[in-house]
Structure formats: C-alpha cells, structure tokens
Specification:
Layout: H1 11-22, H2 27-38, H3 40-45, H4 48-55, H5 59-68, H6 74-83, H7 92-104, H8 108-130, H9 133-145, E1 149-152, H10 158-171, E2 175-178, H11 185-188, E3 197-201, H12 208-219, E4 224-228, H13 234-238, E5 241-244, E6 249-250, E7 253-254, H14 257-274
Parallel strand pairs: 1-2, 1-3, 3-4, 4-5
Antiparallel strand pairs: 6-7
Helix pairs in contact: 1-2, 2-5, 7-8, 8-14, 9-14, 10-14
C-alpha cells in the first residue's frame, strides 16, 4: 500500500481518501472506514474506546486505520472530523437543548413530537450542508431526459417513491412505481431500456429486493440514480450518480424528512426542466 505524504486536513478530502482506499484495506480497517463515513459525528465526539465498541473493533484498530491514511495517530485523524463541525450554525446545539428541556415538562406525546421534530431538523440541516449542487443538477438532467422514470424503493423507502409517482403523475411526467404487488416487481421493470432511468432509494440495512432489482436494471445498462446513505451502499456501487442522505433518528426511529425534501425537489425540478410540455 502506497504511503501518503500529506494526509488531508479537510473532511471532504479525507472522505474521498477513505472511499478510494477502502477496497484495498484489510477487513477490520474497512469496517472502520465504513463506520467513519456513515457516522462522522460519532468519530468527532467519541473516545477511542466508545468508537471501537460501536464499530465492533479493537481500540488499536483505530490507530492502525489512522496510520494507514497517513496520520500520526487517531487524535490527528479525529481533528479532521471535528473540523467539519465548526462551520455549522453555532446556536444549533443550544436550540436543541431548549427543546429537550421543554420536553421534560411535557406529556409523553409532546416528548415524542419534539424528538421527531429535532430529528427532522437535524436531518434537513445535514442534507443542506453536504448536498453537492452539481450532483443535484446532473440528477435532474438525467431524469428529465428519460422517456420513463422507474421508481424503486421498498420497505421504509416506499412512502418516498409512492409520493414521487403521485407527483410525477400530476405534473405529466411518465413514471412507473415498482410496488412489488403480487411479487411482480421484476416484471414491472421488464420494459426499462437505456432510454429510461431507474431512481433507486434504500438505506441501511438496505432492502434486498431493491438492491436485486437495481442490479437487474444496471446489468441491462439502464441508467441508475441512487439515493442512499453511504458510498459503501450497494446502490452507490451500481449507480452512475448517487446522492447521500443520512437521516437522524429519535429512539431508534429514523426521520424521513430529508429524503422527502430531496424527493420533492427532484420531482418539481424535473417537471420544470421538461417545460410546459410535461405539465
């Protein structure tokens, strides 16, 4: 493995390096790489022992991972993860703490409401910070040129794709929702060609049928755009373009606010790009 003379000092550069190196790292270091990309806040704020426990590796593995990327030790690597947080709105944590304090005096339904509201805010803020404008523009271009947009998103992602199918229908954009009713998902995808595009949505632990259907489409050279939560997602590996969405959670229930915001953006932007003929 080639040595890195000057490791990245910014998070974007570090993330690119991790993704680039992941395929050639030993198994345990790959495990850390995946965890680091998917949980950057935990890397920024955690201790060596707490991070190792969450990533299910030995603490010494964190040091080896850091050195494999060219850093002297874990603390030097961790500083890069911390640097990504410095540009955030400074009073965000204060506002969240106020919500929590208010929730302490509220009924259980109000505690739940504030919890989900907090997760939704955090999810949308994170998407706004990391969404690459160029990737969004390219996704809209590809979708707008397609003859038919095939929407694949099963299990928890199904509300997102079903909303998009409804909205595309109202806006005059031809789409087909892969709903897998009667076990006919593969048949619903049969007529997709290179002139069409598949928009696949899935998040860890990734719906197996969504992955299988996307693999089928990619094997037939149907263009794929993915919305998923990690560069190590199987959908990201299959897509010609993918957009990262990482949702916050409350009591183990993940928000869908950021994903729906992106879905609404894509739907309306595609209709606008196509012009009056699609309305």
């Amino acid at each position: 493995m080639a040595e890195i003379d000057t490791p990245p000092r910014d998070f974007a550069g570090l993330k690119s390096l991790i993704v680039e190196r992941a395929a050639n790292l030993p198994k345990r270091l790959t495990q850390i790489a995946t965890y680091a990309v998917e949980h950057p806040d935990e890397i920024a704020f955690g201790t060596v022992s707490s991070i190792a426990e969450q990533a299910e590796v030995q603490p010494s593995t964190l040091v080896r991972f850091s050195q494999a990327l060219g850093y002297q030790g874990f603390s030097e690597l961790q500083e890069v993860f911390r640097s990504r947080l410095r540009d955030r709105v400074l009073n965000y944590d204060e506002r969240i703490e106020q919500l929590r304090q208010h929730a302490l005096t509220s009924s259980k339904p109000n505690v739940i409401f504030h919890g989900f509201g907090e997760a939704a805010e955090k999810s949308i803020l994170a998407l706004r910070e990391k969404l690459e404008p160029g990737a969004l523009d390219r996704a809209v271009d590809i979708l707008a040129r397609a003859e038919t947009i095939y929407l694949i998103g099963l299990r928890r992602s199904f509300p997102i794709t079903s909303y998009m199918a409804y909205a595309f229908g109202k806006l005059g954009v031809r789409s087909i929702l892969i709903d897998a009713v009667g076990g006919l998902a593969a048949e619903q995808l049969t007529f997709a060609t290179r002139k069409d595009v598949v928009l696949a949505i899935s998040f860890t632990p990734y719906a197996s049928e969504t992955v299988a259907l996307t693999q089928n489409a990619a094997a037939r050279q149907v263009p794929v755009i993915a919305v998923t939560d990690s560069p190590f997602s199987p959908l990201a590996q299959l897509a010609s373009l993918w957009i990262e969405v990482v949702e916050a959670n409350f009591e183990g229930f993940r928000s869908m606010a950021a994903t729906l915001t992106l879905a609404m953006t894509l739907t309306v932007a595609v209709a606008e790009r196509r012009g009056p003929a699609s309305a």
